[in-house]
Write a structure and sequence with these properties.
This protein is about 40% helix and about 20% strand. By secondary structure, it is of the alpha/beta class. The chain binds guanosine-5'-triphosphate and magnesium ion.
């Protein structure tokens, strides 16, 4: 999974990046940084850690997430987002400032998370708009030679749905597309279509306080009654927008400080701050949810390892994630839950207790399952 961190200047993007990747990139109070930071973080997963402690394997391989922290942009100074980097990301992490600091001026005047969310959304919408216009121009030129059916469908999708939405300043993530349309859109790397996690960078005192971001989760008052207006997660989780947008309150600087402590001390400091998980875990979890990803595990004396899959993937797809031979020669998957395995102490005991099941190719692997593939090539 690749997550792109973006936002206005001086909102705490690099502080968050440092907390997430345990890096020490410079965070600056005075001058906006102009460098893109790239880092990889191992996904911390308590389930996998328990399996590691059970097997004590030669190799321990958690899943990895790549984070890219692009410099903040100041439109007033004619700066533009590092789009090429962001287009390759699976999802975007938009850091908005909610912390007060009289010595750190906000580029747009006062602290206003809602306004900043809209500002950045508009930035993404403009970038997408440019891409659509360019493509439609090309298709218009190609009309002389005649368009293929595929091109006609593409043009219809762009001009009937995508362009009007962008012109109404609606991020594409709020629209619903069927599987075919999604496939057709994939190549564009539309930024406003990417799932978005809004990280609200709050004061240290507000970090454990659920009310800190409650007001942001409500639909904007300016557009009441619009079906597609709710920009954020709602508790029912059913609206199309909520599926592709989440909010998380984080105190980036506090988490950056905690990430630099000795690992054995980190838990106490988190508890004191009213948190049970560090932002590194919460951000990655939100990313998995936004992207519909799950983890399954493979275990053994050689290696205990996490694998990432799209929710709903079948056992044979899971086998392919591990090795193409396993997919080709797939016979059966032996499946149990991570907790059942911890309780039993070994797969052999799981088998005796009948908590290890034999599943076929079409079995949908679930989050947290331990899978052993039987294959023959
Ligand atoms: N008070 C307070 N200050 C913070 C917080 N998070 C970040 N800062 C400070 O804000 C300043 C900017 O932080 P950065 O992480 O460099 O911000 P950035 O978004 O990466 O900035 P650019 O890359 O220059 O756009 C630094 O001095 C941070 O220490 C916070 O939660 N509270
Ligand atoms: Mg920065």
């Amino acid at each position: 999974m690749q997550l792109g961190i973006l936002g206005l200047p001086k909102v705490g993007k690099t502080a968050l990046f440092n907390a997430l990747t345990a890096s020490r990139q410079a965070t600056g109070r005075f001058r906006a940084s102009k460098t893109t930071n790239v880092g990889v973080a191992a996904v911390r997963d308590r389930r996998l850690e328990q399996l590691r402690d059970l097997y004590r394997p030669k190799r321990y391989t958690p899943a990895q997430v790549r984070f890219v922290d692009v410099p903040g942009i100041d439109r007033g100074r004619g700066e533009t987002l590092d789009l090429a980097e962001l287009r390759m990301m699976d999802a975007l992490v938009h850091v908005v400032r909610a912390f007060e600091d009289p010595e750190l001026l906000h580029p747009s005047g006062g602290v206003d998370p809602r306004r900043d969310m809209e500002t950045i959304d508009l930035e993404l919408i403009l970038a997408d708009h440019e891409v659509v216009e360019r493509r439609l121009e090309r298709l218009a030129q190609a009309r002389k030679r005649g368009l293929s059916d595929l091109e006609k469908r593409e043009r219809a999708l762009l001009s009937d749905r995508i362009l009007p939405a962008l012109e109404a300043e609606t991020p594409l993530r709020r629209l619903e597309f069927d599987a075919n349309e999604e496939k057709r859109l994939r190549g564009y790397g539309f930024l406003s279509l990417k799932p978005m996690l809004v990280v609200v960078n709050v004061d240290e005192a507000a970090v454990g306080d659920p009310d800190a971001i409650a007001a942001l989760a409500a639909p904007p008052a300016a557009e009441p009654g619009q079906r597609e207006s709710a920009p954020c997660a709602n508790p029912s989780g059913r609206s199309p927008s909520s599926a592709r947008m989440r909010l998380l309150a984080v105190s980036a600087r506090l988490e950056e400080d905690i990430s630099r402590l000795d690992p054995t001390d980190q838990g106490d400091f988190l508890t004191e701050a009213g948190l049970d998980q560090p932002s590194a875990v919460r951000v990655v979890q939100a990313g998995y949810e936004l992207l519909g990803l799950i983890s399954f595990f493979t275990v053994g004396d050689d290696e205990v390892r996490a694998w990432t899959l799209r929710r709903g993937s079948t056992a044979v797809t899971a086998a392919g994630a591990v090795h193409s031979d396993m997919e080709r020669g797939f016979i059966r998957a032996e499946v149990t839950g991570w907790r059942e395995l911890i309780d039993a102490g070994s797969l052999a005991v799981c088998r005796e207790r009948a908590t290890l099941r034999l599943e076929g190719k079409a079995y949908p692997v679930r989050d947290g399952e331990v899978v052993h593939f039987r294959f023959n090539v």
